[in-house]
Design a protein that fits this description.
By secondary structure, the protein is mainly alpha-helical. The protein is built from two helices and two strands; from the N terminus they run ββαα. A hairpin with an 8-residue loop joins strand 1 and strand 2. The longest helix is centred in the C-terminal third of the chain and has 30 residues.
Length: 76
């Protein structure tokens, strides 16, 4: 059986008393979904996306409620 190279190196053979763990990741391994999530959901852009999404959700529920209330309470 051959050991698999996962890109994780663990070294506890230091005299400093701290264990060192290093993970090697490359941008080629990052999926498109993760890249989109990182771009749209973090930082200032993430805040703007959440504010805009909240406004859209609010107005959608408001309009649905308004139209529903209009037809429920419509006088004949």
């Amino acid at each position: 059986m051959q050991p698999q190279d996962t890109g994780v190196q663990y070294s506890r053979w230091n005299n400093s008393g701290h264990d060192d763990v290093s993970v090697n990741t490359s941008t080629d391994e990052v999926s498109g979904c993760k890249r989109i999530y990182t771009t749209l959901c973090t930082g200032k852009i993430g805040i703007a996306v959440k504010v805009i999404g909240g406004n859209i959700l609010f107005w959608t529920v408001f309009v649905i409620g308004y139209v529903t209330g209009y037809y429920v309470h419509k006088c004949k």
